[in-house]
Specification:
Elements lengths: L6 H19 L10 H7 L11 H8 L11 H14 L3 H33 L6 H17 L4 H5 L4 H25 L5 H18 L6 H13 L6 H28 L2 H4 L9 H20 L24 H18 L5 H13 L20 H14 L5 H28 L3 H11 L4 H17 L6 H15 L5 H12 L6 H13 L10 H10 L8 H12 L6 H18 L3 H14 L4 H13 L3 H14 L3 H21 L1
Helix pairs in contact: 1-5, 1-6, 1-17, 3-4, 5-6, 5-8, 6-16, 6-17, 8-9, 10-15, 13-14, 14-15, 15-16, 16-17, 18-19, 19-20, 19-21, 20-21, 21-22, 22-24, 23-25, 25-26, 26-27, 27-28, 27-29, 28-29
Length: about 650
């Protein structure tokens, strides 16, 4: 039996899928910026461009605090353009993310059609255009509404992942279009040699995962198309294309790691796991992702997965050994069945290749759902193929259609429920803690939110014990957690309650001896502590505050970015609280020395020098700051400071 879809109905189906996806995500478009959105967007004044000009666009392009490629300049530019047209409106930023998501779904539809057509011809599999269309529609629909993709849409900063995926999909579209032309002996090389790498570069400029494009293209050829073209000569050219674009760069990367292993290993100095433990843990993470893709469960999905147990050995926990064997078994099945079940081999290898950067040796955090945004496409393409195009009998076909429809409906409902939880940070965190009570980060954030509610409420009888419980739970769950101790101290200062001495002692110990890792400590805690002491709220003795700063500055895992921020906070504390400009100046210089490209530290130091009537030193520092600066917004501020220095020099004369 074959189900046909007229062209008009096909377009109506596509529109309906886009509308259903929009409706599922609509509740989550409300709310505000969350978590890292604040650091990368809200508090990043370089994003705040106000006119469409070369200098302003270049400013947003260079708005990241990190060096290339971690700066992800094209993603930062997109945030700048959002600001240009909508200012800091979270709804508009999220809506832009949703539009990117919908575009990715449409391109996935087209890629599945092209891949299905090529596969049918190169493997001599009788797939009609109607079968391929149904397959492509189902793959698009299931991927668009799957709840595992929600964080890549509603967590604004994860546009880096979705935008990179958009350009990877455009590259795949260009490549597959060129491949069909090669198979028809009608050219196609411009699409393969020019358009495909161009989109790949754009993907890389959004996020480093764009570097996976050559490997993903190879998965298509290795499993589905087998490098078949119209002529043997063209086939050889195609193989040379992959030799140059995949094998040589991969070999160069391996050689570099062997010659410069410290480039990789230094990142593990501030992680609670080593390279071996990460690889062991990621084998279990892969199976967790597979569980979430084929059996989505909102109680397991989360922004924070810091409750995911680290594998210390093959038998700790025992599931590690089975996970490792299972991943090896998946690879074996893909290679073994490459000829007999190529779609299955494709789905497995596409999924594993999509995780090759973020789920292997690079010392990133262990588990994040948005890492499946691209890899899950391979599995969804495979699943919908076997449900909708593989059945040989009529009742098999009806069963496949019913199963696919029910699964799409289930995912739509779960995504809608989860999007509603994400409509504001309070409901989102409540759901996170309810589903992941052993997550230190979720507990800490819940405590933080209750502290903010205490500031707005006159009835603290129930809020105080709940906030304290969450913060103490975060401390218990993570022996290295310092954020929870900061929270307890601020909570008690705010309510005028005594701060227990053991909290301060334990905080200092953890700051000095525990690896300086985002799961343990948030650098913003130090600037918040200083701002607190600039208010009229009860304060800690200066000895305790300085003891906290001294402890963290002795942490061997402190990177230059955190060190700069801590010195900058100390500069403010000495100047505004202790009224000690000389010592403040020392920390101002230390902040600039650690991170000279950060203009706010440079400007703060220059203003302090001017306050101290050190005009010549301020002038010298401004020259150094301008040498380190590459953004027009900073140059404009530099000119204002320069004019102020000149006026001050004239006054002194």
């Amino acid at each position: 039996m074959e189900i046909t879809i007229p062209s008009r109905l096909l377009y109506s189906l596509l529109f309906a899928i886009l509308a259903i996806t929009t409706a599922a995500y609509y509740p989550g478009l409300d709310g505000n910026f969350m978590f890292d959105d604040n650091v990368h967007i809200v508090q990043n004044r370089l994003i705040a461009i106000t006119r469409f000009s070369t200098d302003q666009l270049y400013q947003a392009w260079n708005a990241s605090a990190f060096n290339f490629p971690a700066s992800r300049p094209l993603s930062m530019l997109s945030f700048g353009l959002n600001h240009l047209f909508t200012v800091l409106d979270a709804y508009s930023f999220k809506l832009t993310n949703l539009i990117i998501h919908l575009l990715c779904g449409l391109i996935l539809f087209q890629i599945t059609r092209l891949a299905g057509t090529l596969y049918s011809r190169t493997a001599d599999i009788p797939l009609s255009p109607h079968q391929i269309n149904i397959w492509a529609v189902a793959a698009m629909a299931l991927w668009l509404v799957h709840p595992i993709n929600l964080t890549a849409v509603l967590y604004i900063v994860q546009r880096m992942a979705s935008l990179s995926t958009l350009f990877i999909l455009l590259a795949l579209w260009a490549y597959l279009s060129g491949r069909i032309r090669l198979l028809n002996d009608r050219g196609g090389w411009p699409l393969i040699l020019l358009a495909t790498p161009a989109f790949g570069i754009l993907a890389f400029l959004c996020k480093e995962s764009g570097a996976l494009l050559p490997a993903l293209l190879f998965v298509f050829e290795f499993t589905l198309f087998h490098f078949k073209t119209a002529t043997e000569r063209t086939t050889q050219y195609l193989k040379h294309y992959f030799l140059i674009g995949l094998v040589l760069p991969f070999t160069a990367a391996i050689c570099y790691l062997l010659l410069q292993p410290e480039w990789l290993l230094i990142g593990y100095t501030k992680r609670p796991f080593n390279l071996t433990e990460r690889l062991l843990t990621e084998s279990r993470a892969v199976w967790f992702y597979l569980q979430m893709i084929f059996g989505p469960d909102n109680s397991l999905l989360a922004l924070y997965h810091d409750d995911f147990q680290i594998s210390r050995s093959l038998l700790d926990p025992p599931s590690t050994l089975w996970a490792m064997l299972g991943v090896g078994g998946l690879i074996f099945i893909a290679l073994w069945q490459r000829q007999h079940a190529p779609i299955l081999a494709f789905g497995i290898l596409f999924f594993l290749t999509g995780h090759a950067l973020e789920s292997t040796i690079i010392p990133l955090e262990l588990v994040y759902e948005h890492r499946n945004y691209l890899p899950s496409m391979g599995l969804i393409i495979t699943l919908t193929y076997y449900l909708l195009t593989h059945p040989k009998r009529d009742w098999h076909c009806y069963l496949g259609m019913a199963t696919a429809t029910l699964f799409i409906g289930l995912c739509t409902g779960k995504t809608h429920i989860r999007a509603d939880e994400w409509s504001n940070e309070i409901s989102m965190i409540r759901a996170e803690v309810a589903h992941h009570p052993n997550s230190p980060r979720a507990n800490f954030r819940a405590g933080q939110i209750l502290i903010s509610l205490i500031q707005e409420s006159e009835d603290n009888g129930t809020l105080y014990p709940a906030a304290r419980q969450y913060l103490e739970q975060a401390i218990r769950l993570n022996p290295g957690n310092a954020d929870g101790l900061f929270g307890l101290i601020i909570l008690h200062l705010h309510l005028g309650k005594a701060v227990e001495p053991q909290w301060l002692d334990e905080l200092k110990y953890r700051l000095e001896h525990i690896p300086y890792d985002p799961q343990n400590i948030t650098t913003g805690q130090f600037s918040y502590l200083v701002r607190w002491h600039l208010s009229d709220n009860p304060k800690l003795p200066a000895k305790e505050v300085l003891g906290i700063f001294d402890a963290v500055l002795h942490n061997q895992a402190l990177d230059r970015y955190a060190r700069a921020a801590i010195h900058a906070s100390l500069q403010t504390y000495y100047l505004r609280v202790l009224k000690d400009p000389e010592t403040a100046l020392e920390h101002g210089y230390a902040a600039v020395a650690a991170w000279p490209q950060q203009w706010s530290y440079q400007a703060s130091l220059i203003r302090l020098l001017l306050e101290m009537d050190e005009t010549e030193k301020a002038k010298q520092q401004l020259t150094q700051a301008q040498a380190a600066d590459f953004n027009q917004a900073n140059r404009e501020q530099a000119q204002a400071l320069q004019h102020f220095i000149q006026r001050q020099q004239q006054t002194l004369k």
